[in-house]
């Protein structure tokens, strides 16, 4: 796969191994090890389904055998778009076990994004779940599977209906152990994550067994996660945050228990906290106020909860200070990206650091630079763009060499596009973004992608999308639209048109404002600075 992704330079990889960051374990190894060492220990909870480490490892083997019999071959890509349920975890590790690459697609992605990911990755199969009404991905998945030349199989958790797909349960019936995968190197990709950004549809991020495994183990250590941990997965499992910070992978790597929540509501989550003795969970800032409000009136016992992680976008200082008193647990702020770098406030940090910063880098090998527009380092306390490289930060995207030239420096630093301030002690405070995107409740929305879709809406001649501060969402998206003709379409018309085009609901602008013309710079480009100011003024 060298033509599809860029590995770390050989001397750098050797250094990471010699310093003990990387090893030869594959990502599914903790399941094998857990089954052998503590097979009876509870590994995964999904409603009434409770799988021990031995049960989980056996299920992964059976599904891996079923996938291999289709056949899905080592090195092939399979798009995985499932809600938080046991089948997600089993399928993910089953694909890893046979050497295939899961493409982790968020359940909220619309058909247009899914189709683009299928074509970019060359996926040989799609795995989706039965849904209801507009939330049922089966019809769109069936169409994509029929039209995309690379796709050979559609697999459905639940009833395949008239899609022509294979029921996921049939994979369990293969019976035989999976064929031994060509183990290859742990420095080859284990899975493909998605990145939101400013270049349209999400980019594919190749994460290797070595770097992702290290990311998970180091995160578990920074978060106090061990064999007694019970991690509640509230956010979608496809999020890097939920997967490896320390998330599902980190918890299983240390012998803990993962509990899957079907939704992020505090009512559902608090019931699971009490029932399962949850010790740690993770939220995006937009969910925190509702959790704090519900905590004041819930009858559920939340005494087991030790740590609430908050990440995905910046948590305001005032809300941060309410977490400990309201929930009776420690707040841990997390700032990271699917491309790699994770920053954490530490559990023993002073309250002022925990409530006012987004933490510091996870690894002693993480290299960070805060630079001005000309790439020159700025002193502590001065805003600048964050650049980084390290043992779990990629060196390039999957099948995107032209983009790599823009997003990575010649010496391998990733240009995050985030504006940060670094304190004297090395903690980072996120103050904005260089990238042209809206960070809505932790979901990064590429402005250019939405603008392109808006131009396809009847009555729209020109459009520009910007973010505006929002006390609940962090940022809300505002579309400034120039009408084609007398009347400008309103927000509901725009919403209906974008959804019909297959755009994910969270990407639909929160506001649509009609303007006679878009402001331009001296070279004729849309000037978004005055638009952001207008959006912020309400």
TrEMBL record:
Gene3D superfamilies: 3.30.300.30, N-terminal domain of ligase-like (3.40.50.12780)
Domain AMP-binding enzyme C-terminal: 449-525
Cited InterPro entries: AMP-bd_C, AMP-bd_C_sf, AMP-binding_CS, AMP-dep_synth/lig_dom, ANL_N_sf, ATP-dep_AMP-bd_enzyme
Entry keyword annotation includes Ligase: yes
Boundaries of every AMP-dependent synthetase/ligase domain copy: 32-398
Superkingdom of the source species: Bacteria
GO molecular function (one): acid-thiol ligase activity
Keywords from the UniProt entry: Ligase
Record-given protein name: AMP-binding protein
Organism encoding this protein: Streptomonospora mangrovi
């Amino acid at each position: 796969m060298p033509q599809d992704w860029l590995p770390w330079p050989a001397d750098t990889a050797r250094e990471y191994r010699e310093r003990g960051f990387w090893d030869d374990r594959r990502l599914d190894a903790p399941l094998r090890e857990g089954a052998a060492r503590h097979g009876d220990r509870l590994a995964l909870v999904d409603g009434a389904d409770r799988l021990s480490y031995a049960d989980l490892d056996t299920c992964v083997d059976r599904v891996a055998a079923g996938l291999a019999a289709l056949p899905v071959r080592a090195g092939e890509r399979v798009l995985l778009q499932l809600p938080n349920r046991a089948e997600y975890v089993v399928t993910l590790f089953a694909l890893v076990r046979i050497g295939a690459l899961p493409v982790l697609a968020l359940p909220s992605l619309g058909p247009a994004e899914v189709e683009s990911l299928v074509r970019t990755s060359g996926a040989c199969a799609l795995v989706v779940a039965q849904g209801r009404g507009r939330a049922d991905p089966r019809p769109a998945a069936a169409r994509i599977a029929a039209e995309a030349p690379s796709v050979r199989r559609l697999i459905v958790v639940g009833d395949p209906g008239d899609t022509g797909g294979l029921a996921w349960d049939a994979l369990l019936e293969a019976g035989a152990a999976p064929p031994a995968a060509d183990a290859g190197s742990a420095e080859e990709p284990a899975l493909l994550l998605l990145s939101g950004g400013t270049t349209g549809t999400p980019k594919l991020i190749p994460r290797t067994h070595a770097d992702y495994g290290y990311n998970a183990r180091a995160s578990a250590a920074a978060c106090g996660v061990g064999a007694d941990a019970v991690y509640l997965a509230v956010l979608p499992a496809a999020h890097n945050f939920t997967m490896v910070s320390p998330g599902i992978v980190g918890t299983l790597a240390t012998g803990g228990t993962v509990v899957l929540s079907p939704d992020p509501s505090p009512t559902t989550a608090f019931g699971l906290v009490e029932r399962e003795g949850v010790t740690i969970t993770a939220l995006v800032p937009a969910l925190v106020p509702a959790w704090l409000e519900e905590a004041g009136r819930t009858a559920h016992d939340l005494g087991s909860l030790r740590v609430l992680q908050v990440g995905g976008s910046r948590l305001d200082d005032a809300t941060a200070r309410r977490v400990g008193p309201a929930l009776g647990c420690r707040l841990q702020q997390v700032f990271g990206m699917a491309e790699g770098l994770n920053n954490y406030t530490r559990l023993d940090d002073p309250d002022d650091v925990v409530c006012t910063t987004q933490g510091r880098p996870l690894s002693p090998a993480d290299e960070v630079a805060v630079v001005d527009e000309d790439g020159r380092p700025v002193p502590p306390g001065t805003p600048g763009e964050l650049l980084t490289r390290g043992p779990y930060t990629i060196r390039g995207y999957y099948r995107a060499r032209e983009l790599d030239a823009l997003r990575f420096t010649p010496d391998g630093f990733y240009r995050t596009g985030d504006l940060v301030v670094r304190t004297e002690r090395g903690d980072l405070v996120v103050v904005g973004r260089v990238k042209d995107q809206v960070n809505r409740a932790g979901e990064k929305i590429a402005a250019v992608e939405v603008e392109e879709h808006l131009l396809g809406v009847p009555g729209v001649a020109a459009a520009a999308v910007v973010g505006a501060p929002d006390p609940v969402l962090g940022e809300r998206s505002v579309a400034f639209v120039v009408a084609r003709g007398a009347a400008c379409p309103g927000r509901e018309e725009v919403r209906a048109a974008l959804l019909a085009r297959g755009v994910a609901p969270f990407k639909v602008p929160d506001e649509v404002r009609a303007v006679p013309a878009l402001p331009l710079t001296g070279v004729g480009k849309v000037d978004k600075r005055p638009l952001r100011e207008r959006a912020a003024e309400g």
